[in-house]
């Protein structure tokens, strides 16, 4: 690795956490731009009914074939829309918009709709990819950029399928998934709730409220010491806190929190960051994502309840700062998705949703 690259990483680690500047936004944008239309390496999640379904990633998913897998492609698109909205002078702006227009064309989204409409693909990307798809839809719909309305309209039929899937699936889920990976139930509900509120979708709001309450209302003493598991990229405790924070009124939430997470009421609360032994390992590098997940949930809690939880900012900053250098370490295992997680943490830190 060149000395200049080491110097960049040092400066990045020192200064990035202070502010998401145009310079840093430009660098983070290069990561999804680089892989948005990069077909390989690729991890498909399809179920084959017969040999006719053996197709290339781009043929199967013309909108979301890049960045290694479907969900990473989706949140790579979200990252770019997010950055374009907040940094009008973003470098390569025209190139980025053009790539978004190519990938999110009406025709490509129709093909994605056709894929998800297959009877044997009802569980495709449930619920991690579903959540990020609605996050992307929300970002497009709240953007004032001229290109965004067209792309939001293009994407809407796919989002509508995802909404229907949520409403069909959630009552069937008798027990929540509390893993720190893709199947985590609470994470899968958080972005969906945000979109349901934004779009005033009462059916989706009701489904999430009823089922999240059923699944999580009686939880107590979440075992913070059990985190992290070996390849977590989400915090099971804090993602659950995130959905209950969204759906419960203030007094009910604080009462629930005192039973669910009493340790967070300790002004001396500390939490060791998750350490990564090998960032060239695609699973072990997940732990950088866990640090970002913890950070965004803590920032969100502080933002909504500053009087009660102001002192948690140090823990949030520590987790964010620790993993930021890994976003730019040159390893594709992290590059293709970690920028989105870092930006998600900054979204909460800067209160710019």
Question: How would the global form be characterised?
Answer: globular
Describe the largest sheet. Answer: none
Backbone structural class: mainly alpha
Spell out the helices and strands N to C.
Answer: HHHHHHHHHHHHHHHH
Structural overview:
Mean pLDDT is about 95; it is low at about 1-15. This protein is an all-alpha fold. It has helices at about 5-15, 20-35, 55-60, 70-85, 95-105, 105-115, 130-140, 145-170, 185-200, 200-215, 235-245, 250-260, 285-305, 305-310, 315-325, 330-350. The protein is built from 16 helices and no strands. It is globular and about 55 Å long. The protein starts with a helix and ends with a helix. It is about 60% helix and about 0% strand. Helix 9 (about 185-200) packs antiparallel against helix 10.
Set down the secondary structure blueprint:
Blueprint: H1 3-15, H2 22-35, H3 57-60, H4 70-86, H5 93-103, H6 106-116, H7 128-141, H8 146-169, H9 185-198, H10 202-216, H11 236-247, H12 250-260, H13 286-304, H14 306-309, H15 313-323, H16 332-349
Helix pairs in contact: 2-4, 2-16, 4-7, 4-16, 6-8, 7-8, 7-9, 8-10, 9-10, 9-11, 10-11, 11-12, 11-13, 13-15, 13-16
Key attributes of the depicted protein:
353 residues, mainly alpha
What does this entry show, briefly?
The chain is mainly alpha-helical and 353 residues long. The protein has 16 helices and no strands.
């Amino acid at each position: 690795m060149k000395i200049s690259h080491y110097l960049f990483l040092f400066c990045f680690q020192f200064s990035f956490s202070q502010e998401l500047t145009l310079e840093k936004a430009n660098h983070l944008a290069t990561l999804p731009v680089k892989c948005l239309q990069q077909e390989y390496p690729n991890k498909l999640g399809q179920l084959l009914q017969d040999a006719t379904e053996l197709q290339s990633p781009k043929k199967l998913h013309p909108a979301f074939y890049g960045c290694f897998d479907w969900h990473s492609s989706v949140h790579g698109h979200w990252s770019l829309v997010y950055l374009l909205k907040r940094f009008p002078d973003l470098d390569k702006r025209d190139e980025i918009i053009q790539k978004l227009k190519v990938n999110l064309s009406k025709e490509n989204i129709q093909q994605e709709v056709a894929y998800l409409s297959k009877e044997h693909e009802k569980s495709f990307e449930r619920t991690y990819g579903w959540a990020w798809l609605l996050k992307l839809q929300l970002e497009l719909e709240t953007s004032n950029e001229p290109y965004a309305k067209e792309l939001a309209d293009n994407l809407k039929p796919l989002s509508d399928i995802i909404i229907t899937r949520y409403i069909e699936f959630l009552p069937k889920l008798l027990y929540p998934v509390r893993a720190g990976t893709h199947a985590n139930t609470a994470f899968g509900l958080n972005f969906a709730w945000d979109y349901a509120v934004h779009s005033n979708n009462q059916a989706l709001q009701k489904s999430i409220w009823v089922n999240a309450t059923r699944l999580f209302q009686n939880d107590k003493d979440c075992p913070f010491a059990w985190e992290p598991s070996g390849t977590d990229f989400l915090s099971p405790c804090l993602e659950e806190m995130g959905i209950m924070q969204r759906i419960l009124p203030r007094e009910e939430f604080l009462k629930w929190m005192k039973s669910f997470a009493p340790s967070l009421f300790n002004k001396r609360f500390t939490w060791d960051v998750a350490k990564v032994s090998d960032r060239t390992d695609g699973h072990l590098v997940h732990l950088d994502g866990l640090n970002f997940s913890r950070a965004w949930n803590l920032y969100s809690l502080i933002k909504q309840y500053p009087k009660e939880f102001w002192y948690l900012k140090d823990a949030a900053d520590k987790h964010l700062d620790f993993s930021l250098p890994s976003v730019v370490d040159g390893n594709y295992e992290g590059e293709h998705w970690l920028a989105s997680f870092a930006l998600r943490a900054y979204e909460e830190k800067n209160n710019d949703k």
